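Translate sequence into structure tokens.
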Amino acid sequence: MTEIVDRPGGNPGAPGSSPEPVTVNGRPLPLGGVAPHTTTLQWLRANGVTGPKEGCAEGECGACSVMVSRPDGRGGTRWTAVNSCLIPAAALAGQEIYSAEGLATADALHPVQEEMALRGGSQCGYCTPGFVSSMAAEYYREDRSPCGQGSGCCSAPATSDIVSSARIEPSGNELPWSIVMDDAARPLEDWLPPRTEDITEAVVEPATRYEAAPGHDAEIGPNGFDLHALSGNLCRCTGYRPIRDAAFALGGVDPDDPIAQRRSRPAPVSAPTRIDVGGTAFVRPADLAEAVELLAAQPDSVLLAGSTDWGVELTIKHRRAPLTIAIDQLPELRTFAAADGHIEIGAGLTLSEVERQLRGSVPLLAQLFPLFASQLIRNAATIGGNLGTGSPIGDLAPALLALDAELVLTSTRGDRTVPLAGYFTGYRQSVRAADELIRAVRIPTPIAPLGRFYKVAKRKFDDISSVAVAIAATLTDGVVSHVRIGVGGAAATPLRAEAAEAELAGRPWSRESFDAAADIMNSVGTPMSDHRASAAYRSATLAQSIRRFYAEVAS
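Result follows.
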């Protein structure tokens, strides 16, 4: 039996109409009868939208990527790529989605689709829809600008040698369609800037056909396309060079493009809703007060924000919750303010939103964000959700520990503030009561001027840390006057390396001081051996991070 309630007035028990439909590829698609555990990917494919694919079902491959409309912080809409395999479909009631097949018109391919085809960016095609969706979100990024017109792009033209033309020549392999580009198609020479002259430091990058030159990030193309937008999309057979070629070949956005025009209007906000299916319920409360009342009445409820952790529980472990409370759109959890003595970050803001809000003002976090999973994950994962899971290998906790962060916990009893250093009590356990949720994170100011974040993992991007170390320090008259060291992956909880901090505090800024602290770091926590790293390797890495910090800052 299915009971669906729409509660504009916030009454959780009153009967009403069906939940708002999701606008998929420009057309409303009803959500009637969808269960709280049904993912967006499952729901889309069951309704004939088969472009998104299931590869890993845990947000690591990006084959399921779709574009979702999200607030841009200025009253408009930002098209944002997310993993549809993780987000429950019910959480997107009233929202707008574009999948890869919805980008084209009846008369023409979308520019992203066209460039992927012309540059050979697809082979078996399984991952292609996900790449197209992630690439389209970056294509529509409003502050994407050609080289020389925006930040992050090269200040001087820089390209590598042309390894091969984009023009396709017949190879003798007969195909049922022509892949020979006509003269009107753009070869590489038309969109790459001139060859760098007189820059001896330029390093040729044949895989990207681009140069890493002074003032230029080789991951950002001459069209302003940031390849990090594709960090959560994996390809097994094509290889990444033609996909990068396609990304760097994209031109500006047609002002008559209706998807681009949608950016000027506010992103949709879902109405309060309750859906009951098969003994489980999904509720989107009207406000924070209602959310904590629901949580107090049923403490075993699941709090749903980005669903990057709960989505894996749904798809891999097949867990089901009696009640899912969606808190991702609560205004009280989406605040950002720089007050006297601290920066307060709403727990419902995604990591991508936090990164944009901070704009590099907290250097330690600016180093962390690009290394945290992938952009697809950061576009959904929230700062409160990451801390709420209590994972001992989460990357965010060590950095916030080094920044002396505090958490604001809220319930029907009101707010209380706890230091993050005293928050974790055991493996995925904390001082947060069953009826409390994280409302905000506070970072005291001024920020320590010296900071580094070190992540050791099998891959640089889109991977889980073996060890993570964050260090924040202040140097006064040649003496370490303040230091905080946060560690992840060395115990059942993230922790502060307090003994190493005590060894450094008040000591001269010297190699001898840091060598002494490194000896102590070698015995921090209770590292274990697993498939990611041995206990001995983890301990050695902890010690080396202290020496590395001194060497980098001293240089």
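Note: The first helix runs from residue 40 to 46.
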